[in-house]
Design a protein that fits this description.
The protein is an alpha/beta fold and 260 residues long. The protein is built from 10 helices and 9 strands. Strands 7-6-5-8-9 form a 5-stranded parallel sheet. Helix 2 packs antiparallel against helix 10. The relative contact order is 0.17.
């Protein structure tokens, strides 16, 4: 059984994997620092944009500091499939925020892959997403969103900080044959009169596809906010439990290094 070096404890603070550790069947791996499910839930509850790239540290109501995830070139290479498009490949382009990467995103990318053999995903920078969607969007900053998308097996390449509108220059530069957009999109134009896909639509290369999933980033956040108090109580209890678990962390969880 494999698990990250962040200790997992039950409601009583007992290591959830203790029996497996005692049996000698536990493999501990270095987790990605600075990002976790607990952090993301905190960002939703706090409704702050401090987690975005231009911000600083994020403080919860319980004074717990959430640090930024720091992207390195090595980390991006680890998540990439290192595939290079051949001149015979049919390149498919799909863009968006891909915030809180979920099954709806995955199904959209799966549909994109069916329409070609090399999928390029354009990811909007934090300021572009926030301008379009407002509030404290995106919940995950661009570094975090890039790795989420790269981890999907249907993706061959990611372009960071693409413009909101798909331009002729972008299509030519990336040698795009098909532009894919989803029917249930998180991407919203700032004005009803704006069409970010006007160029590929005019060129006849836009395909609007059905992901067969009604799940959206907005829907995920609504689920959390509907249970706001329960999550706040959970966050407070988890802070104390996590500190206790950290203080009593088994030796094999300590000083774990990333495999090369």
């Amino acid at each position: 059984v494999a698990h990250g070096d962040d200790i997992s404890a039950d409601a009583n603070g007992v290591n959830s994997y203790q029996e497996i550790i005692d049996a000698g069947k536990m493999k501990i791996v270095k987790r990605t620092d600075g990002i976790s499910t607990t952090d993301l839930v905190g960002r939703m509850l706090l409704c702050t944009s401090d987690h975005q790239i231009s911000g600083g540290e994020l403080h919860s109501p319980h004074e717990h500091v959430i640090e930024h995830y720091l992207t390195t070139s090595r980390k991006i290479v680890q998540f990439s499939n290192n595939k290079v498009p051949k001149h015979t490949d049919k390149v498919v382009y799909v863009d968006g925020s891909f915030d809180l990467f979920h099954v709806g995103h995955m199904r959209l990318l799966e549909e994109a892959k069916k329409r070609g053999n090399y999928v390029i995903v354009g990811i909007h920078e934090d300021a572009v997403v926030n301008k379009a969607k407002g509030r404290n969007y995106p919940i995950m900053n661009i570094n975090e969103r890039v790795l989420g998308v790269l981890s999907c097996r249907f993706v061959d390449e990611v372009v960071m900080g693409v413009p909101f509108e798909v331009s002729s220059g972008l299509i030519k530069s990336l040698e795009v044959s098909v532009v894919v957009a989803g029917k249930h999109e998180d991407k919203k134009a700032a004005s009803p009169d704006e069409d970010p896909y006007a160029v590929p639509r005019a060129k006849g290369i836009l395909e609007v596809v059905e992901s067969n999933s009604k799940l959206t980033t907005d829907g995920l956040i609504e689920r959390v906010m509907e249970n706001r108090q329960a999550f706040l109580d959970r966050q407070a209890a988890k802070k104390n439990k996590d500190q206790s678990a950290e203080d009593n962390k088994p030796e094999q969880y300590r000083n774990v290094r990333e495999a090369i």
